[in-house]
Amino acid sequence: MPVFRTLIVDDNEPLRRVLRSILQQRDDLQIIGEASDGLEAVQKARILRPDLILLDIDLPRLNGIQAARRLRDLVPLAKVLFFGVESSSDVVREAFNVGGAGYIYKLNIGSELLPAIETVLRGKQFVGSGLEDEFSDSTAAQARPHHHDVQFYSDDAVFLESVTQFIAAALKAGNASIVVATKPHRDSLLQALKAQGVDVDAAIQQGAYASLDAADTLSIYMVDDWPDPVRFFAGFGKLIESASKAAKAQDPRVAFFGEGVALLWAEGKTEAAIRLEQLVKDLAKTYKVDILCAYPFSVNVDERAFRKICAEHSAVYSR
Known about the structure:
This protein is an alpha/beta fold. It has 2 domains: about 5-130, Rossmann fold (3-Layer(aba) Sandwich), CATH 3.40.50.2300; about 150-319, 3-Layer(aba) Sandwich (Rossmann fold). The chain is about 50% helix and about 20% strand. The chain has helices at about 15-25, 40-50, 65-75, 90-95, 110-120, 135, 140-145, 155-170, 185-195, 200-205, 215-220, 230-245, 260-265, 270-285, 305-310; strands at about 5-10, 30-35, 50-55, 80-85, 100-105, 125, 150-155, 175-180, 210-215, 220-225, 225, 255-260, 290-295, 315-319. A 12-stranded parallel β-sheet has the order 2-1-3-4-5-6-14-7-13-12-8-9, sandwiched between helices. A two-stranded antiparallel ribbon has the order 10-11. α1 links the parallel β1 and β2. α1 (about 15-25) packs across α5 (about 110-120) and α2 packs parallel to α3. It is elongated, with a radius of gyration of 21 Å.
């Protein structure tokens, strides 16, 4: 098992102690040093050559952005995971522009640090909660190669906000949308979209908005409790092509939200859920489609399966 040499950078010693305790939950993370300001971080990185750097934005002497610019030249292969109390889109965007692989809102470190580390070590981007909406529509979208994202949500209010934003942005831009969800979520999403001024009725009539029941859709392509790739691609391929043709945009994309994977996960069929995520990722590579999956937080999480789920996505959101 590879071991990732980790440098912790924060000017608050109690927080560094919290970070150490969290990192010690993973056997593949070796803490090789700590720094309390940006200049010290640069100096230690030059000597220690870390694989992973946890970097506070607000640091004395050199702030996190300034330090990251120097770190990019010193240790170009190191993954830099930013955290801070700033949620301004300008600050967060700049953190990614200087080479950051992820950003966590500081108050959420306890719940988001390990998922963020798992994501960035696999070469993907992690966007934590507490960020302004316009950031996810710009820098994050540009950084993702196949637009297959996942939202882990704490309650239905967070779920509804995330999915509504995702679908509304597509429809307002003249693109198409497909929703595969439970009936309560489909109903609440429809009302939320209308509340945001989206003419969903017109989109439905045009064929640019399709809403399908998650359980019924699963039953079409699941064979012996396992997703059948032929049925999966045949069904969704036709659906995506049809929705794309109905879109008004000149070069249309389809925003696809699905929680069939979450249903499998809730039933304890974790391997089937992982396999379905792999098929969904292939779908994102094949068609002009932006995909968002969603899972509720659970206290009974299979850590190995959770890491695999995160690894199949372009970006991981947690709130």
